[in-house]
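Input sequence (363 aa), recorded before submission:
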Amino acid sequence: MSEITVPGVAPKGPIGKAVFWARANLFNSWLNTIITLVIIYGVVRLVPPVIQWAFLDSVWSAPDNSVCRAALGACWAFIGVWYRFILFGRFPYDEQWRPLLVCFIFIALLLMSCDRRFWNSWLMLIWVAGTAVIATLMWGGVLGMTFVETDLWNGLPLTLILAVFGLGFAFPLAILLALGRRSHMPAIRALSVGYIEFIRGVPLITVLFMASVMLPLFLPTGTTINKLLRAEVAFILFSAAYLAEVVRGGLQAVPKGQFEAADALGLSYRQKMQKIVLPQALTIAIPPLVNTFIGAFKDTSLVIVIGLFDLLNTANAALNDPAWRGYYVEAYVMISIIYFVFCFFMSRYSQHLEMSFNKGKRR
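Predicted structure, token format:
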């Protein structure tokens, strides 16, 4: 006895459900059918050659590049030889366990911060302790560890230091700037508007040059500021201006009745913003905030203009070795995977956070 199919209802079984989904989503009109067929054709044409190059004809290990030169596929042996330099740069080879541990500490702190069970006063103390451990591991000079200058802080640890601490300090500054731009006091509003518009009107490279080249000219003779610290300050100031506009957009989206209700309760300005307005504004602004975070994380590669080597720039430095020159695709694939993992996690977590905060608003 044949199965009776009811129109609009998915049949039983995985094959039947797949066919039903394809008809409903991929072949439900002539335009969608043409686009689907073009995409299938592109996948059939492109995917097999990529698999052939990346896996079947590739070289995974080799003592030198002679085997790679004769191969038709990818030379993953380049990654095997240079991965430590790409990840940690010129940090002393025998002590590269220190920046490796720093990367794991950063990941642990970020994962802990994403868990709402840790959203209490202890989280700040954990970050302070984690920062102290990170500084001790990177600088060294104690517990038998060799002292390492910040000029040798390269690769992934430098990227995480610039991005995490830069955005961590830029975010509260951005909130103050956004509140200042909406302030009723003309002087505070003018200063906030002037700062935001000036910083957003120049590229990050210009801000980095100003911090690295121009700032020392205004310091007293004999006074110097670490290059990494100057880059971090420039990154904080630049990111704060963009985040401030995102927060201001969230503040403007909060219904006016929320402000009036807070005033009717007799709340002070600080209580109104802390308990009523800012939680709603930041919830509304989650998507553009995370978009700015992702962009800032990738912008750390621009520090090469002032002589700092982040993850991308250590890969470029490895490619300058004459014996292994030419394997750009393999190096950039590795870097892309690392950047993608961090950026994809931020994107997915923001979606989870947005859905969690909006549960009470659904009907």
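Checked by second reader. The mean pLDDT is 89.
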